[in-house]
Amino acid sequence: MKKILIFVSFVVSIFVIGLVSLNSHSVQDRILDIGLKNILSSAEPFLDNEDTLKVVVCGSRSPLPSPGRAEACILVEAGDDIYIFDLGNGSMDNLTQYQVPWPNVKAVLITHMHSDHIADLPDAHLQSWVQGRDSPLMVYGPEGINLVTKGFELAYSADYQYRNEHHGDDMLPMSIAGFNTIQIIDNQLIPNDTPGLEILPFVVDHYPVNSAFGFKISYKGRTVVISGDTIHDGSVQKYSKDVDLLVHSAISIDIVERMRGVAPIPQLDKILFDIQDYHTTIEEVGEIARDANVKHLLIYHSIPTPRNALMERVFLRPIENIFKDHTLSDDGTIVVMPVENNEIIIDKIN
Ligand SMILES: [Zn+2]
Ligand SMILES: [Zn+2]
Hints:
By secondary structure, the chain is an alpha/beta fold. It contains twelve helices and 14 strands. It has helices spanning 2-22, 25-39, 91-97, 115-118, 121-130, 145-155, 157-167, 235-239, 253-261, 266-274, 282-291, 309-316; strands spanning 52-59, 73-78, 81-85, 105-109, 137-141, 179-183, 197-203, 213-219, 222-226, 245-251, 296-303, 326-328, 333-338, 345-348.
């Protein structure tokens, strides 16, 4: 009994000392310094020593809101070079939190010009400028992408000026403010300096979007296809034959119809009806992955993006008996494919 009392008084003493210490300014300052160092420290999981093809989901949701998630964004790292496919709203917060090293970002590639794929381009411009890129931000996109980047340049011209004057031309040179914009051509490789890397754009059908692309990325024997937004017209399946990873958008007609049944305003009901005719259903995504013999399927831009485990189960119900090797991505889902072997490692950035 005496031993127990001694032990309890010891634990209480430690607890009290801890509480008192937390009120000490010097202890607070030390803990804060450690926290800040962790927040601003190295660029894990990027720039490691392994030669891999890596996919990071920097935005997993569609325009239908899902708290804590960003709109469409897929980061691909081949060796030490980074390419970012789409920059939807919120994706720059994720990329900043993941400590993406912008000097290693070689280009941003836009699948199509819906707002949920381009909204964070201006923030990408600022982050890369601050981190010392040496030329205007390279952007590849479909027909009309030039108008988008010119529009952002116009909208942010005062911002460029203010920041240049405040931080100086050495840090933020006006000569590289803005975008270097190149229009994507169907089936023409995106030029790049990354040894062993090929990025092949292919047209997908997202009508009435008049120009939309998917991409096939090949790096030293590892392969990824990104669908962008599209109906199932056969293109994604054709380019996905035997790939390691298919990153595909998907709509659950079942859940969208249920949402229509409880839509509080007629406008939402109409939108939920209209969006059904230009996306690939979750069943079709499973069939594409199965018929193309892909090794793993990563679902993103889910419509709607599940908010909890139950909704996730209902969303995935139609695919369970079609294609087993799938992952419904979250923001921060990471897929690592070493060039040395055939492994596909699925993880999550904390
Ligand atoms: Zn979209
Ligand atoms: Zn779209």
